[in-house]
Design a protein that fits this description.
This protein has 156 residues and is of the alpha+beta class. It contains five helices and nine strands, in the order βααββββββαββαα. The strands form two sheets. Strands 1-2-9-4-7 form a five-stranded antiparallel beta sheet. It has a four-stranded antiparallel beta sheet with strand order 3-8-5-6, with no helix packed on it. A hairpin with a 6-residue loop joins strand 5 and strand 6. It is globular.
């Protein structure tokens, strides 16, 4: 895993606009210094179930598989495929707990990472932007919870 300061974050870039479609170009420009670019090769583990980490990511390139460990001989089941533009790892970021799933790169991936410390800095320095970001996180969590409920009801 390679990590760099977010020089990549061009608010005009199409992949950045997709990941931050809920923000204006100006807001993305303000957010960029709080972000860090990370890259993974195909088949690399991006996040590991059970590990406590303090960041979430905005997938700007690639595709990720979300896997969960089953009770059967250490086998995993794929529970979601995440495409470019999506939010990744927001659950553990919010509750500061261990990751609930393993995320694996299905192809070469690039994410803009927001750490808990940088989020705290954003809250202090740009509270309205932080609120907008948190509202987006809640929206994504709500959609994912609704979809999980739909899947469970189909099984019953």
């Amino acid at each position: 895993m390679e990590s760099t300061k977010c020089d990549y974050c061009d608010p005009q870039a199409e992949d950045i606009q997709k990941a931050f479609s809920f923000l204006s170009t100006e807001e993305v420009g303000v957010l960029c210094p709080y972000l860090e670019l990370r890259e993974w090769e195909r088949d690399a583990t991006v996040m590991k179930e059970g590990v406590v980490e303090d960041y979430m990511g905005f997938l700007i390139q690639g595709k990720l598989a979300v896997k969960r460990l089953t009770g059967y001989w250490g086998k995993h089941i794929i529970i979601a495929i995440l495409d470019q533009g999506t939010l990744v790892g927001e659950g553990a970021f919010i509750d500061a707990g261990p990751r609930s799933t393993t995320i694996v790169a299905m192809e070469e991936c690039r994410m803009l990472i927001l750490t808990a410390q940088r989020m705290n800095d954003l809250i202090l320095n740009r509270p309205m932007l932080a609120i907008k970001l948190m509202k987006h996180m809640i929206h994504i969590i709500s959609i994912r919870l609704r979809k999980a409920g739909d899947r469970i009801s189909e099984l019953l």
